[in-house]
Design goal:
The chain has 235 residues and is an alpha/beta fold. The chain has one domain: Class I glutamine amidotransferase (GATase) domain (Rossmann fold). It is built from eight helices and twelve strands. The strands form three sheets. The protein has a seven-stranded mixed sheet. A three-stranded mixed sheet has the order 8-9-12, covered by helices on one side. A hairpin with a 4-residue loop joins strand 6 and strand 7. The protein is globular and about 45 Å long. The two termini are 14 Å apart.
Length: 235
């Protein structure tokens, strides 16, 4: 399987070159399907949705389509699966991670994805990257007191009736994106060192100029910015 797991998308030439390498052909000869679902569970959802689609639709693909996971339970599989199966790359955008996890499961997309990824590239952005990793983080005290999936490091609360903490576990590490971002002041190296103590797998803290290129489990860091690995071990 081939993954390009980013914090903020294709933000520099190094990440773009890694993407082309994974595709094995130029972007203008490749077909992309973009999943924007994660953006809807925040107050800025519509604005972020435009940002997600504009960033990726404008990259010069031969063909570019959108797959909305919230629609899948109400339509026939034959109406969406062939287009996804024919794509060279699946792009999963960022937003509220617990909401994205819920719709991965509810739509049936999570069950189809491992087979689909035998022949295509997965490009994740923030929450989209975290979905294929070992695990997500949920504050246990808030979960016990309120029954809410809440990630205090990002100040991110998932909708009570549409949230999940499941991941696909297709790579054996954890990602914490947006290192040193002004929008996420808790995502510092000091805080990430504490976060790494919660898991027994490698934890990558990556900034918005960094991506992880993963091919059949082998990890390569692609960066024009800052990153750190905790709980390091041979991948």
């Amino acid at each position: 399987m081939k993954f390009l797991l980013t914090s903020a998308g294709v933000t520099n030439d190094s990440i773009r070159a890694a993407l082309v390498n994974l595709l094995g052909k130029p972007i203008d000869q490749a077909t992309a399907i973009c999943v924007p679902t994660a953006i809807y569970a925040s107050a800025e959802g519509t604005e972020h949705g435009w940002w997600t689609l504009n960033q990726f639709a404008g990259m010069g693909w031969q063909k570019f389509g959108v797959l909305e996971l919230t629609a899948l339970p109400s339509i026939l599989e034959e109406h969406w699966l062939p287009a996804v199966a024919a794509a060279d790359i699946i792009i999963v955008g960022g937003g509220t991670t617990g909401y994205l996890s819920y719709w991965f499961q509810e739509s049936g997309f999570a069950a189809k994805l491992p087979e689909l990824l035998k022949t295509k590239v997965y490009l994740g952005v923030s929450a989209g990257s975290m979905m294929v990793t070992h695990s997500l983080y949920v504050n246990p005290d808030v979960l016990a007191e309120r029954g809410i999936l809440y990630d205090d490091e990002y100040d991110e609360e998932s909708p009570p009736q549409a949230s999940s903490d499941k991941t696909l576990k297709l790579v054996d590490f954890v990602i914490r994106p947006h290192l040193n971002s002004e929008w996420f002041p808790n995502i510092t190296l000091e805080r990430m060192e504490q976060a790494a103590a919660r898991v027994d797998v490698p934890l990558y803290a990556i900034d918005d100029q960094t991506a992880l290129k993963v091919v059949d489990g082998q990890v390569e860091v692609v960066s024009e910015g800052a990153w750190q690995i905790f709980n390091a071990r041979e991948q």
